[in-house]
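yo, NADH-quinone oxidoreductase subunit I is done. seq:
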Amino acid sequence: MTDDGERGAPGKGLVQGLAVTLKTMTKPSTTQQYPDVEPELPPRSRGVIALLEENCTVCMLCARECPDWCIYIDSHKEEVVVPGAARARQRNVLDRFDIDFSLCMYCGICIEVCPFDALHWTPEFEYAETDVLDLLHDKNRLGEWMRTVPPPPAHDVLGEPSKEEATAARKAAGPGAATAAKADVRRATPTTADRPPREARSKPEPPEQPQ
Ligand code: SF4
Ligand code: SF4
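structure:
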């Protein structure tokens, strides 16, 4: 039955269905023979999460923001004696950093919120286990994934350098460079002394009155 309520030719639907089947059968197959053949994944695929331990300050932001509560962090404080400082400083030392990948839903929030770039996506996906408890990766295992993290994308050539890059460039240019640059800016900026005398400044023409 068509949309207009008319009955179509008998067997038309069957022929249309077989035509779709035939078309699909003759299409080249896109099956990938994994695990015999490695799949070609985009370089920034979300496989597993890696931890760069030396960047982690134990701020706990990732654990607090994780919607699945599958990040477990323990730490203790340590005194660091800084020569010349009035008193010893304290720093957090990471004792435990685990992610339970049996709960993780790969939302990436922990990576986004980390203020110190301690967490990274890697395209590594071959970490299936026969025991679900083995999907709890500790800080050593998370650290091992760092070798598979792709390098960060190149900066936009038209973008402004970051504050850190600008500071590094200033330091590399030497101590006199900043003073010279300031002097150049001062020279290029007109001051009141550069203004012409009052009498030499022409008064603006009054607007023409309508006739
Ligand atoms: S990816 Fe999402 S669910 Fe997984 S650990 Fe990070 S915040 Fe939690
Ligand atoms: S947010 Fe980053 S720095 Fe803070 S605890 Fe998590 S991994 Fe460490």
